Amino acid sequence: MQFLFLLKKVVTYFLLPLQLSLLLMLLGGALCSLTRRKGFGTLGKISLSAGILLLLVLSHKQVGIALLQPLETRYAAIPELAPGEPLPAALAECRAIVVFAGGVSNTPWLPATSRLSEVGLARLVEGVRLARLLPDALLILTGPAYEQDAPESETAAAALARAAESLGIAPERMRLITAARDTEGEVAALHALYGDMPLALVSSASHMPRIMGYAQKAGLHALACPAGYKIRPNAKFRWHEWTADISGLGNSTGGIYERLGTLWARLRGRTD
Description:
single chain; Rossmann fold; 2 domains; 5 strands; globular; Cell_Envelope_Assoc
């Protein structure tokens, strides 16, 4: 199991846009240097050109939008609710809110909210918003230790809990899940601990389809509560949305990463 876990990480890393593009370019450069051997020069030019073209295409903002937006719009966000406005029925029945960790830095001299990644902070803020709408619900926070072979190091869940407390959530409302290594393990732990309790699951909008796939397969009674949207289209035309830059590459990377994760889960029968 440890070998498969590491293999998944390594293969995924080299299939992401930047790494794959650089790998093709490096391979092309190496092959071009072997021009004395028949065929290597042609193969090198093809590989080098493919790497450059792949990087340019996947850095275009419209390509990033096309890859990420279908994932982000799979589940609707929980709407903004005015004071006294009735909650959506599916949300009102939830007895716990689950916030999946999204990256925490090991910088103890910073306040907890500043240690969270942009992704993690967006998830936590949505979790806190829902916790205020559901004052009797538990707030469940997930995430293993920074160094999984060092049990004494602080867990991502603990860092989320301290950030949530600084945002006004009482410690007695919070529960931590720290042993699971990834999303699949966290969903399995939720099922083992809470069975068919109605749960509001909070994660990045692009990550939500994969989480819900795991949840449905595990038999969780789950409501998708997406947060941290990357694609927020403007009603009017903006020329800069048709350019290529690092944000386009980031969105393409996110879309490809989630699809690779979903494919891996389906191959092993973890989702339908």
